[in-house]
Amino acid sequence: MRICKLFEAADPVISFEFFPPKTDEGAEQLLATVAELQGLRPGYVSVTYGAGGSTRSRTLELVARIKREIGIETMAHLTCVGHSRMELAEIVQQLVDAGIENVLALRGDPPKGESEFRAARDGFTYASELVAFLRQLGAPICIGAACYPEKHPEAGSLQHDLDALRRKVDAGADFLVTQLFFDNEDYFYFVRRAKEVGVTLPITPGIWPITNYKQIDKIAQLCGARLPTDLRTELEDVKDSVEAVAGVGVSYALDQCRDLLERGAPGLHFYTLNKSPATRAILARLRHRG
Ligand code: FAD
């Protein structure tokens, strides 16, 4: 099913994001993790696309297997990194042939050590070009795109980033998924500003339940996400206990999710880091409350 259809129903669209493991064994473990989350009735799960190398073909393989073997709707992430138009068209054809109906169209990051993104030969510089290309191909797919409540790190200003987002939407994106963030006010402000530039598509907030104290600064810096002072203090107070850190992370994300849904967010997209306990705990408590 196309994800755009899910947004037409009244229920929030819950989704889980995974990354492709490097080994066959890892892939089997991931399938087991996805199966464990099936009981939470996700609308779909998505699998990220690596910066290069062998995991790229695993993205295709995993979205196809999750859909076929577990029966959950899937979305394949796809980036412009290192791909010509012809290669991108071939990948999309493979996805369509495998019955995949949803693609998250992304630009991708510059390779490590480079500050600027450079298009591959006969490739694309911006995600909006990939979205337009996918539309031009006429592939029977629903197209998602990324957006950034705290602006994309390379963008000069939020307004500049919103103008770029508008181009992506005009090119044919069907729905949006945000970068992780920790302050819901950033999300709601962004949604308001997006509406002002004419972006009225569903904007699903990206939730990252913190489970590892050592990771937080690296991830927050990489994604340009601000960690609120109160949350940082709470985490620092318990940093020596893995369980207590996860407890703080889950409880914070749970409050975030409740507030987001109560105030009208169209769904929740969980960055699972290929693990299920935090996401399960949050959703179980969200639904228990009814
Ligand atoms: P774009 O929309 O092209 O934006 C990139 C930058 O260019 C922004 O600063 C934007 O303001 C600017 N810009 C856009 N269009 C124009 C224009 N016409 N003129 C001037 N400036 C412009 N990365 C992966 O490698 N694999 C993944 O699977 C993956 N999944 C992701 C999932 C989500 C939900 C999110 C939020 C991000 C994901 N990323 C992934 C990271 C993403 O690839 C990076 O954030 C990347 O730097 C930007 O991708 P984009 O599609 O948002 O790019």
Description:
This protein is an alpha/beta fold and 290 residues long. The chain has 11 helices and 8 strands. The chain has helices at residues 3-6, 24-37, 55-70, 85-97, 127-137, 158-171, 184-196, 216-223, 229-237, 242-262, 277-288; strands at residues 13-18, 44-47, 74-79, 102-106, 142-147, 175-180, 203-207, 267-271. The protein has an 8-stranded parallel β-barrel, surrounded by 4 helices. Strand 4, helix 5 (127-137) and strand 5 (142-147) form a beta-alpha-beta unit. Helix 10 (242-262) crosses helix 11 (277-288). The chain is globular and about 50 Å long. The chain starts with a helix and ends with a helix. The protein binds flavin-adenine dinucleotide. Flavin-adenine dinucleotide (FAD) binds next to strand 3, strand 4, helix 5, helix 6 and strand 6.
Keywords:
binds flavin-adenine dinucleotide; about 45% helix; eight-stranded parallel β-barrel; 8 strands; about 15% strand; 11 helices; alpha/beta; about 290 residues
Summarize the amount of helix as a percent range. 40-55%
Structural class: alpha/beta
Beta strand %: 5-15%
How many β-strand stretches? 8
Computed CA radius of gyration, to the nearest angstrom: 18 Å
- Please report the distance between the alpha carbons of the first and last residues: 26 Å
What are the secondary-structure elements, in order, as H or E? HEHEHEHEHEHEHEHHHEH
Largest sheet: 8 strands, parallel, barrel
Number of helices: 11
Which kinds of small molecule does this entry bind, naming each only once? flavin-adenine dinucleotide
Uncertain runs are none
Give the neighbour order of strands across the main sheet. 1-2-3-4-5-6-7-8
Mean pLDDT: 95
Note the overall shape: globular
